Structure formats: C-alpha cells, structure tokens
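Lab meeting, item 3. Inverse folding demo.
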C-alpha cells in the first residue's frame, strides 16, 4: 500500500484540499458584493483565485523557477 500512495501524493492532496476550502470561503464572501450578480462573474472569480492561490502555494512549498510554476 505504501508504494501505491506515497507521502508526496498525500501532501499534495492535503494542499489541494486546503486550497479548495480557502477558495470557496473567499468566493462566498465575494458573492455578497453587489457587483457580483451573474454566474459568469462567480466562475471567473473562482478561476482567478484558484490560479493565484494555487500558484503561490506551489511556489512557497516547492521553490521552482517561476516559469515552471506558471
């Protein structure tokens, strides 16, 4: 079982879960604003926050060159 699920994969899944929770909490806060009225606005906010938070966490944990992070 250890060869099937490595500790790196478990760490990656834990980070992904954390990022998803953070992004969903931020999106819920932004839904209360009056300028966010359509579903497409929420969709775009979700994409932007996922990329911004995901890339910043990837850079902070793995220290890659910026070209690899993007």
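The presenter then showed the designed sequence:
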């Amino acid at each position: 079982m250890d060869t099937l699920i490595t500790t790196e994969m478990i760490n990656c899944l834990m980070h992904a879960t954390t990022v998803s929770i953070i992004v969903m909490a931020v999106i819920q806060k932004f839904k209360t604003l009056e300028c966010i009225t359509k579903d497409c606005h929420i969709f775009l906010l979700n994409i932007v926050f996922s990329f911004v938070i995901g890339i910043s966490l990837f850079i902070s944990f793995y220290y890659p060159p910026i070209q690899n992070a993007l």
